[in-house]
Predict the structure.
Amino acid sequence: MLSADEAADLIEAIATRQDRAAFARLFQYFAPRVKAFIMRGGADPEVAQEVAQEALIMVWRKAASFDRTKASASTWLYTIARNKRIDHLRRNNRPAIDTDDWLTVFAPEDDDADKSVLAGQTYTRVKELLGGLSADQLVVIEKAFFEDKTHTVIAEELKLPLGTVKSRIRLALARLREALERDES
């Protein structure tokens, strides 16, 4: 077992001293876990192994960009692995990305793990907040933002007055905005 502090210490040892023993320990602990993570995303074992190795090589190369005050070592590392999985899918033109995972679909192209971690944290928080909306608000938000439907089309589909649809969207967005602003405070 590797604690969060130990993992962060190992990454920092890699960054400052290019410590091969620290990398070996990190690799030994995380390689099978990252491989399993990638396989849960639908990759076969060979692809998962390849992606896990690429991710851990990136950890070696980008260790200096790790900041334990912004994310845990595992969050940072799994973000790199997720980005490598996306890169692999894009390289091989496989449309196997789960479109329900809208973070994956709209993930940034760059390899800046800090930005990706922040995006991941925002995604997780917004997903939590969406779960707290009423069913009526959630359905109009999903149709407007995830299905890209106009307010008029939503009103027709749901057999609701246009004003009701607009009100529900406005109230849901206000609720989300307030919660996110409270988080920033």
Summary: The chain has a mean pLDDT of 82. The longest helix spans residues 162-184. The chain has nine helices and no strands. The two ends are 35 Å apart (CA to CA).
